[in-house]
Task: inverse folding
DNA sequence: TTGTACGCGTTATCAA
DNA sequence: TTGATAACGCGTACAA
């Protein structure tokens, strides 16, 4: 592989001039510029990113650490982030983490020069102490300065409103287990009920692995079912089908967290605006922390095609 | 951030000795070794990966380019590959590509020193010319030396066998559009029918966007439906539900390509052995091309929980 | 407008 | 067993 010396030799100029031409700086005689371009073409010269990185002390790599429980949920993020990163001439280094320890390990490891910054996504566990160049998306943490949160309360309210519009007044809710997100969801649920003057029936609200089973055991009729994410939705759809309860005729299942593009979901859902999210992440990475109002991101109603 | 000079100074040894200690080489006096270790600890010194890369001419980064149409299908691969790469102290640089041009572009870009090698996954378009350090998984290409293929014929045969065991003798098939994979699927379908002495009814076989619509328009009864992947399966499930045809009672839908872990799929499917696949990819990357017999990978029957 | 020389942080070589 | 020094390939002050 040809290096900058080979090019400078062939073009009869110095390394510096070659570098100047390639970085598009002015103040280079057209003649030299041409000579350099020709030499570059002839030698098929491509600057080495490693050497560039050593010089500039920046690799252009952004570590993305997926800490979401159901990894299928993260594909949407990855796609959106990769697209946005590429637009900014940056690279996406992918990692998965399942707990605070593995997250810490990854941050240490790829932070040793390989990555300029990192993004942690969807962690449902308590976060360890993180360096300044790490931002979080939809994670369990209080530091809103470097983090992007979701407005799950609003999402749940929107969901309730939608199913009510569809004539469903008995809204069951399957929730996450005690976490910040769970609290928000419950809050949105309460708000919606109040707003529409509906009674709160605790027998319709459950959480945890056995949530649906518990719900069905109550023998309380319901014609809408809010679930916290797509994985839970799949599960619910399967169980309801086995019981012969038609979806959506008998029960309308609604997912409060879908990363599928609008229309791709088989059920109504709240979809998070992935492009916007990715752009906000970029802004945060660029150090524009001031632009981060800490305002949680609001999802959009997404209906099946 | 402290560098090797700071350490050598504090430990009263030369850079070379520090490097020796950290790379675990023998031939270092215990006394010096201790001094170095202490200095490292005191300064919280972590060697810079970039500088290491410049020296060794290798970053440890492996580019993974997802070229699959439905990106949700690729999450399984990503997870398996990341795990295996981490085991080998390597890093996963993620890219998406939609066609030959964008693939070429990515290969050029991240091949400029950033990545030691690359893996292309699931491309359904004709591949451009690729450097030696690129391997492919489930792509449209003939070069079996650096590529891993799937045995879709066997998968389809297995699928037919399963649905037949479940008492379904009218097996409809939705196929990819004319590609190598489509040919294999058709072959497996024919083989299974022959084996079980069933007649071939062309009205049961369709491909393309309107496949399911065409199939239903034929008005030929069927009680099993083979679809090429999970996305098509979702689509089929939705359409069948709208027509009031119960799944799996009336029609058993079977996905010929699921990357979900066994038991996670809502329908019976052929799942590819992701760990094995990742390991084979590592072997190929390690240059053990001889170990690649070109033998296509066989999937496993995966039933809903 | 151009070239020289040095810094980036590490590994490898070679002589001591 | 150790240290000085040369790569590795590029960016960039600074001088000309």
Result:
């Amino acid at each position: 592989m040809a290096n900058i010396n080979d090019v400078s030799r062939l073009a009869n100029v110095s390394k510096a001039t070659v570098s100047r031409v390639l970085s598009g700086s002015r103040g280079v005689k057209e003649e030299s510029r041409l000579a350099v371009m020709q030499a570059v073409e002839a030698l098929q010269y491509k600057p080495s990113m490693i050497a560039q990185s050593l010089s500039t002390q920046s690799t252009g790599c952004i570590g993305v650490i997926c800490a979401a429980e159901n990894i299928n949920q993260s594909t949407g993020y990855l796609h959106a982030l990769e697209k946005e990163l590429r637009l900014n001439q940056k690279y996406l280094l992918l990692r998965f983490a399942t707990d605070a320890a593995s997250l810490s390990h990854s941050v240490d490891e790829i932070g040793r020069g390989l990555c300029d910054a990192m993004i942690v996504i969807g962690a449902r566990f308590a976060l360890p102490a993180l360096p300044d160049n790490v931002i979080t998306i939809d994670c369990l943490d209080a530091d809103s300065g470097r983090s992007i949160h979701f407005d799950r309360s609003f999402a749940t309210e929107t969901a309730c409103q939608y199913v009510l519009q569809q004539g469903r007044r008995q809204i069951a809710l399957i929730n996450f287990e005690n976490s910040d997100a769970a609290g928000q969801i419950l809050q949105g649920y309460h708000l919606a009920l109040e707003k529409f003057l509906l009674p709160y029936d605790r027998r319709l609200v459950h959480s945890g692995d056995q949530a649906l089973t518990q719900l069905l055991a109550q023998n309380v009729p319901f014609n809408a079912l809010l679930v916290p994410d797509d994985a839970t939705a799949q599960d619910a759809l399967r169980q309801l089908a086995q019981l012969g309860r038609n979806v959506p005729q008998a029960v309308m299942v609604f997912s409060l967290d879908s990363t599928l593009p609008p229309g791709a979901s088989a059920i109504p859902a709240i979809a998070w605006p992935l492009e916007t999210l990715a752009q906000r992440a970029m802004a945060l990475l660029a150090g524009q922390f001031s632009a981060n109002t800490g305002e949680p991101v609001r999802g959009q109603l997404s209906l099946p095609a």
